[in-house]
Design goal:
This protein is an all-alpha fold. The protein has a domain of 130 residues. The protein is 70% helix and 0% strand. The protein contains 7 helices and no strands. Helix 1 packs across helix 6, helix 2 runs antiparallel to helix 3 and helix 5 packs antiparallel against helix 6. The longest helix has 42 residues. The chain is globular, with a radius of gyration of 21 Å.
């Protein structure tokens, strides 16, 4: 009986140690992935967001802009919003509302995020970026990533996760604490989830 109890105690202790090492291994892998993403941002490796296709030139009589033109224009507006937010000590309510409106404009597909989720994200990112010096190349990359998440219905969940990782890396490279970056990314993930899981109309 004592042998059985002793053997059981050893097995339980071994399983507990293996589980602890497994959890630590997951955390180590996640942090390593974050460091790789940050190095990609620093080295200028292209974003995992789908590239904005060059806009076709319009004929003089054509009135409706193409989706590619609209996407490029929206990314440019988002970049201008990010530059305005990062350049100030705190973003005004008007600037946050314009930023949220521009984020919603990026959703060109059938599925769109809710205004509430977008407003929450805009408030969180604005507070996080306020007063931070974000270089123009990283502003452009962030704008492209944000536009891709708001219109992610056709790119798939794994690509969305790669873009979210890129957003976190951009924030951390620009001096944002990991905990704050994770909070902002969680709000952005909620937007992506709404787009990916929205009922088709």
């Amino acid at each position: 009986m004592k042998r059985i109890l002793l053997l059981s105690a050893i097995v339980i202790a071994g399983v507990g140690t293996a589980a602890a090492q497994g959890a630590a291994g997951v955390i180590i892998k996640q942090r390593a992935k974050e460091l790789v993403n940050q190095n990609n941002v620093r080295q200028g490796v292209p974003t995992p967001a789908p590239p904005a296709k060059p806009a076709a030139t319009q004929a003089p009589g054509q009135t409706a802009p193409t989706p590619a033109t609209l996407k490029q224009q929206n990314i440019a507006r988002l970049q201008a919003d990010i530059a305005a937010i990062a350049g100030k000590g705190s973003a005004s309510t008007e600037l946050k509302q314009r930023f949220a409106k521009d984020l919603l404009a990026g959703a060109q597909g059938m599925s769109k995020p809710s205004g509430a989720a977008v407003a929450k994200f805009a408030d969180g990112l604005s507070a996080t970026l306020a007063g931070k010096a974000v270089e123009s190349a990283e502003q452009a990359r962030l704008a492209q990533d944000l536009n891709a998440i708001c219109d992610c219905g056709s790119i798939g969940a794994s690509r969305v996760e790669a873009i979210l990782g890129d957003v976190q890396a951009i924030l951390q490279v620009n001096g944002i604490k990991r905990s704050e970056a994770l909070s902002v990314v969680a709000d952005l993930r909620a937007i992506g989830a709404e787009v990916l899981h929205a009922p088709t109309r």
